[in-house]
Design a protein that fits this description.
Rossmann fold, seven-stranded parallel beta sheet, 7 helices, 13% strand, globular, binds NADP nicotinamide-adenine-dinucleotide phosphate
Length: 279
């Protein structure tokens, strides 16, 4: 649900994605959950991927089904090749195909650089970067097998990579995360170049600071909020729906000519706000 600060729900046209099948990874929480719900509201059938927390995933499925579309929860660890292949195979079997992939699952394992273990580095790269590679590869195979169905969409398929402003803003104490998102940017652009002739659109969304469990410490106290707002020219912390609504647009034919682009959805965080008064 939208918070009072979030964008209004009524803005999503109910038939925009009618007949399309969407897979959203990490969809039992935060941005993925809001995106899965918004895609369902726009008329898509939705697979809600999760790795832990089946109860939360079931609640998301219930909310999506209330729009009169089909939804199901699939458990899979996106960093595990066998589980990703099994998940996409199951979706094709049960839903017929995949039209939209939102590669959203992500995590942080923060540490000062000299304290960071190889396990912390590897886990974040495995989930945030390799996970997107595996899901995008399996989705692209299905898009190419099926090809364009003009009654459904002008594209054979759409891949939306959930990146971060930290694909371009360095982030001390988070080198694994920033490196993973920098990797997502170049992976996305390379896939977009390679797959565009097959009528597959690959793009990314780079959220700024969005209120979700991943960054609770950055917004849950008044002091933390004050510090965070100094980085956001628009002077509001983002809500999951701010990202979900952009994902719906990007997945739709309204944005059919958007290929290989990162949409920064960040209230102006990437505008170097320190330079508004300094420099
Ligand atoms: P979140 O609420 O913590 O959600 C992360 C989701 O990823 C959860 O559903 C989690 O599932 C899932 N996940 C983690 N590891 C997984 C795995 N191995 N396989 C499948 N799913 C896995 O955080 P969020 O803020 O919504 O983050 C979503 C995406 O947005 C991430 O890629 C994040 O980097 C990006 N992002 C967020 C912000 C922000 O300010 N919030 C800013 C920039 C970018 P479980 O709960 O089951 O573990």
């Amino acid at each position: 649900m939208s918070s009072p600060e979030g964008a209004p729900q009524g803005v999503i046209p109910a038939q925009l994605l009618k007949g399309q099948k969407a897979l959203v990874t990490g969809a039992n929480s935060g941005i993925g959950k809001a995106t899965a719900v918004a895609l369902g509201r726009a008329g898509a059938d939705v697979v809600v991927n999760y790795v832990a927390g089946p109860e939360e995933a079931d609640k998301v499925v219930e909310e999506i089904a209330s729009f009169g579309v089909r939804a199901a929860a699939y458990q899979a660890d996106v960093s595990d090749e066998g589980q990703v292949v099994a998940m996409t195979d199951r979706m094709v079997e049960e839903f017929g195909t995949i039209d939209i992939l939102v590669a959203n699952a992500g995590m942080q394992r923060d540490a000062a650089f000299t304290e960071m273990t190889l396990a912390q580095w590897q886990k974040v790269i495995d989930v945030n970067l390799t996970g997107q590679f595996l899901c995008a590869r399996e989705a692209a195979k299905e898009f190419m097998r099926r090809g364009v169905v003009p009654e459904v969409s002008r594209a054979a398929g759409k891949i939306i990579c959930m990146s971060s402003v930290h694909q371009i803003i360095p982030w001390a104490g988070h080198v694994n995360y920033a490196a993973s998102k920098g990797g997502v940017q170049m992976m996305m652009e390379t896939l977009a170049q390679e797959l565009a002739p097959k009528k597959i659109r690959v793009n990314a969304i780079a959220p700024g600071a969005i209120k979700t469990p991943i960054n609770r410490s950055a917004w849950e106290t008044p002091d933390a909020q004050t510090d965070l707002l100094k980085l956001i020219p628009y002077e509001r912390i983002g809500e999951p729906d701010d990202i979900a609504h952009v994902a719906v647009g990007l997945a739709s034919d309204l944005m059919d000519y958007v290929v290989g682009t990162t949409l920064y959805v960040d209230g102006g965080m990437t505008l170097f706000p320190g330079f508004a008064t300094g420099g």
